[in-house]
Amino acid sequence: MIMSNNGKHRVAVCSSAELAEGQRQLFDIDGVEIGLIRVEGKCHAFRNSCPHQGVPMIYGSVVGTMVPSRPQEYVYGHHNEIIRCPLHGWEFNLKTGKALFSPGVSLKIYQAEEEAGEIVLYVDREPLQVTRKQFFCAL
Ligand code: FES
């Protein structure tokens, strides 16, 4: 286990090839499920539990959203920067985890990097057990 400069623990969870563009992976790290997705080349990692009612966010859609605009105008923005909960549609910024409707509500986000052909997560504590989880994915 390697500690990064910011005090996080480095965990290589899979090869880069196992997280191709648009693919998802799900891991259990000491009982906490973490979803991984690659969007436009960038890896994003998030807790697999919606802060509303705990639905698995691994089934969330990666989308854009309507942004503030003048009356009678409809402006789309933030393309592929948002993950939307599959149950009630709460939307979260994939980089910050903040809910679009309130910065006081967040989906937990983890640092995820691609390093030398591996996908690496940086977590707060040194993990004792890391397992890959199966999930149904027709996305
Ligand atoms: S469970 Fe995610 S918005 Fe309700």
Q: What separation lies between the terminal Cα atoms?
A: 33 Å
Percent of sequence in beta strands: over 45%
List the total number of helices. 0
- Name the helicity range: under 10%
Net shape: globular
CATH superfamily: Rieske [2Fe-2S] iron-sulphur domain
How confident is the prediction overall: mean pLDDT?
94
Give me the CATH architecture, please. Answer: 3-layer Sandwich
Question: What spatial order of strands do you see in the largest sheet?
Answer: 1-2-10-9-5-4-3-11
**So what's the CATH class?**
Mainly Beta
- What does the largest sheet look like? 8 strands, antiparallel
CATH topology assignment: Rieske Iron-sulfur Protein
Tell me the count of domains.
1
Bound compounds, each kind once, are: FE2/S2 (inorganic) cluster
Q: What low-confidence regions span 5 or more consecutive residues with pLDDT below 50?
A: none
- Rounded to an integer in angstroms, the radius of gyration calculated over CA atoms is 16 Å
Question: Which helices and strands appear, and what pairs or packs with what?
Answer:
Layout: E1 2-3, E2 9-15, E3 24-29, E4 32-39, E5 42-47, E6 61-67, E7 75-84, E8 91-93, E9 109-115, E10 118-123, E11 130-133
Antiparallel strand pairs: 1-2, 2-10, 3-4, 3-11, 4-5, 5-9, 6-7, 7-8, 9-10
The structure holds FE2/S2 (inorganic) cluster.
Residues 50, 52-53, 55, 85, 87-88, 90 line the site of FE2/S2 (inorganic) cluster.
